[in-house]
User: Fold this.
Amino acid sequence: MSLAEELKARIAAEGPMPLDAWMETCNAHYYATRDPLGADGDFTTAPEISQMFGELVGAALVDCWIRAGAPEEAVYAELGPGRGTLAADALRVMRGAGFSGAAHLIETSPTLREAQAKAMPDATWHDDIDGLPKAPLLLVANEFFDALPIRQTIGEEERKIGHDGERFVFEPAGGEIVESSEAIARYVGGLAQHLIKYGGAALVIDYGYGRGETGDTLQALKAHEKVDPLAFPGDSDLTAHVDFAAVAKAARDEGAATTGMLSQGNWLETLGLGPRAMALAAKNPAQAEAIAAARQRLAGEDEMGQLFKVMAIHRPDWPAPAGLGA
Ligand code: SAH
Assistant:
């Protein structure tokens, strides 16, 4: 039975499905059955655009670690590491600055774990943050929270997915939509508890917004095109914009500190994306144009620079990662 048939049968038996259950089921199938990244896949992420992204993330994390007194037991951790590209680029910089902690990757997809093992042969994998060692974390989550399930409500009514005999349909179809995510709040709460107990800092990078917004941000991507989010269950990448105010609240409710939120473009440029691009281009003159184009994609206002945001969560006695302020 295809996933679409399974979902149709489930709706016939149990009635319309809340959006969060739909998103969880579809994305679990989606990520378990493919490597979705890159030109041949459905979407391209910042670390796949250029090594500069992971290098600057690594520089920010290792700088934070040094300012925290370089605790030896600290580990690198990442949520949803994709192909492991970000981890490999970040750790290369961190190792160069004296960090020798282990790498812990949180990943549920067996297909992506395999890809990660090629880039990060010495890493340890976990299904959930519960599995992380009792040690200070230098953690990054890039385009992870956008894949976690959200709920949508219209007035008092929860938005669900039904089937009209021909296709999957939203019930109710329209109205003013408000989104929330118990899954994100739970995840961030658990992460904050870990940081409070054992120390550390976490960078959250994703597309999203800072103040509570209303409106439908659910989207589906397939072969780099936006498609109807109900048309290809388990076969398109379902995401929603991340509510950074809700992330900050979930972290602070546990006693963790949060930084301000910056656009990805501002943050990367503040950390030295320009000089890094020039140094790379000087070493590889034939690549100069490609490197300049990658900088533009990562930081340009009309590209990822403005849409993507960065925020950090840290234990109050740990320093805030560079460039983010209080
Ligand atoms: N961070 C990577 C990949 C982003 S795609 C990059 O920037 O390239 C989202 C990643 O999160 C994938 O690796 C996916 O398998 C993983 N993922 C999605 N839902 C998850 C969950 N509930 N628990 C753990 N990993 C999950």
